[in-house]
Specification:
Layout (H helix, E strand, L loop, with lengths): L1 E8 L6 H9 L17 E7 L2 E7 L9 H16 L2 E7 L6 H12 L5 E6 L6 H15 L4 E4 L8 H8 L4 E2 L14 H16 L9 E8 L6 E9 L2 H8 L4 H18 L3 E9 L7 H7 L6
Parallel strand pairs: 1-3, 1-4, 4-5, 5-6, 9-10
Antiparallel strand pairs: 1-7, 2-3, 8-9
Helix pairs in contact: 6-8
Length: 297
């Protein structure tokens, strides 16, 4: 057995979560087209051909505007120091930005860690554009221990990516059981499922202002278990958007989330959702600590 912890980093919305879900063949991280969807480090575990790849999905590294953003960026940067391998993911369909260069600065601070560049979304590039992208990488980001071109959404290039990672894995170690694909607690997964459904059904500033908290779980010997969940927003206007006219949108969110949670748990449940206003919660340390979005460091 050979294994390694592989930090998957990049600026927001380059396809990190989609890539990990595809590699692991399980949904370990929620996905949307909204920047900031991933808020904390999430492990996706792949066991293949005697190797154990522990991919760590990280929040997009960016210059934060509030305490939650600081936590997200800190979480991603912190993992760079502990990982065995760093995968820096680029959106190949876009020009390399100052945001990508900011991520690279943080990657370079982990001086001894092997780093592999992943150029994602190559399905959107012609051969000519891909050749130009390779030159741009060298000019703007410098040298890597490996460069792999993929289309994560479609699973293109993933075999080559694993082959590029293999030489940097550590021998003689198995960190997790072979049937385990994530170490994320079940209740945290449930919270993320609810948040994903809201992300997919709302727009503008609403997705960034949402927090989910499981208030109570009532286990029942006969009948379905009951999950009481609060959805927090920062303003009354956001509350109205999520509830929708006559409660229509909140009902849709509940139905879709319940179906996915039932698949996860393997049984039917009752899902009771309530929308609460917690003004400027992303800037408030005590509330962030309650939600698990805070590190004293």
């Amino acid at each position: 057995m050979r294994a390694g912890f592989i930090a998957v980093v990049g600026r927001p919305n380059v396809g990190k979560s989609t890539l990990i879900n595809k590699l692991v063949s399980e949904k370990v991280a929620i996905v949307s087209n909204k920047a900031g969807t991933t808020r904390e480090n999430i492990k996706g575990i792949l066991n293949m051909a005697g190797n154990q790849y522990i991919f760590i999905d990280t929040p997009g590294i960016h210059k934060p505007k509030h305490l939650l953003g600081e936590y997200m960026t800190y979480s991603a940067i912190k993992i760079l120091k502990d990982a065995d391998i760093i995968l820096m993911v680029l959106d190949g369909s876009q020009e390399i930005s100052t945001g990508d260069q900011f991520v690279m600065e943080k990657v370079l601070e982990a001086k001894r860690t092997p780093r592999i560049l992943v150029i994602n979304k190559i399905d959107k590039l012609s051969d000519e554009k891909l050749a130009e992208k390779r030159k741009e990488v060298v000019e703007k980001l410098g040298e890597f221990d490996g460069i792999v071109e993929i289309a994560g959404e479609y699973g293109i290039g993933l075999g080559k990516l694993l082959n590029t990672i293999d030489p940097f894995l550590e021998e003689g170690i198995q960190y997790y059981p072979e049937d385990m694909y994530t170490d994320m607690p079940v209740y945290r997964i449930i919270s993320e499922i609810v948040r994903e459904k809201i992300l997919l059904k709302t727009r503008d500033e609403v997705p960034h202002s949402i927090a989910i908290e499981i208030i109570n779980v009532e286990k029942r010997e006969t009948g379905k278990d009951l999950f009481n969940i609060n959805i927090y927003v920062e303003r009354d206007s956001q509350k109205g958007i999520i509830i929708g006219k006559g409660g229509k949108l909140l009902k849709e969110i509940g139905i879709e989330a319940r179906r996915e949670i039932e698949i996860l748990l393997g049984r039917e449940i009752f899902l009771d959702l309530h929308v609460k206003v917690k003004e400027d919660w992303r800037k408030k340390k005590p509330f962030l600590k309650e939600l698990g979005y805070f590190d004293e460091n």
